[in-house]
Amino acid sequence: MSMNASDARRWMERFFAAFDREQQALTDLDRRSGDGDFGANLRSALNRARTALATADTATPGDVFDVVSTAFLNTGGTSGPLFGMWFRHLAKATRAETVGVAELARGFADATATVQRLGGAKPGDKTMVDAMVPAAEALTAASVGAPGDLREALTAAAAAARSGADATADLLARRGRASYVGEVARGVLDPGAVTVALLTEAACP
Ligand code: ADP
Ligand code: MG
Ligand code: MG
């Protein structure tokens, strides 16, 4: 199994739908650990992405991710530019008519390294990086040796992202607004990490 531009569009549509269901919960998480605008920030980015995709000419998965990237880069908040750069680097690695585990593994790895470089967060700092790193590692593990099945690889990446997101509840934030409130945010999932889990889960219906 490989991924073409239509598959990438369907992935993004499933992600938009998952976000529609979870927007309120994500807003509540940011209200308890930050300033409560996370859901609104994401809503405006995803609405722009949806509108732009409706008329965009997309020949490769990379073209689809570029449209989503631009929508995020034009969004406020800390998460907008970081997700924007994540998608930009995923796009760079996926500019072929069809892509497989190797391209997605490289895309996730480069994208995640960029977010870490820009935001300075390491795994364990209670940010989106806590879900991005395990997802990228799962894809990389699936890409070594004999080329693995893409669906299996994405399923493993989604499980890794979800456990990374779940683990943020116990962490004390060292980056972003949640770091200002210290122990108050203990027990609260990081909304950015939960969003990465939703995004990765949407890749494997
Ligand atoms: P803001 O705090 O500016 O209101 P958002 O609410 O849009 O930003 O996004 C908050 C999310 O951004 C957090 O849940 C976290 O995942 C992520 N985040 C914050 N700071 C960083 C950072 N330095 N590196 C990576 N991710 C970060
Ligand atoms: Mg916020
Ligand atoms: Mg804000």
From TrEMBL:
EC number: 2.7.1.121
Residue intervals of the DhaL domain: 6-205
Organism from which the protein derives: Nonomuraea bangladeshensis
Name this protein carries in UniProt: Dihydroxyacetone kinase subunit DhaL
GO function terms (MF aspect): phosphoenolpyruvate-glycerone phosphotransferase activity
Keywords: Kinase, Transferase
Recorded name of the encoding gene: dhaL
Record-linked Gene3D superfamilies: 1.25.40.340
Highest taxon in the source lineage: Bacteria
Catalytic class of the enzyme: transferase
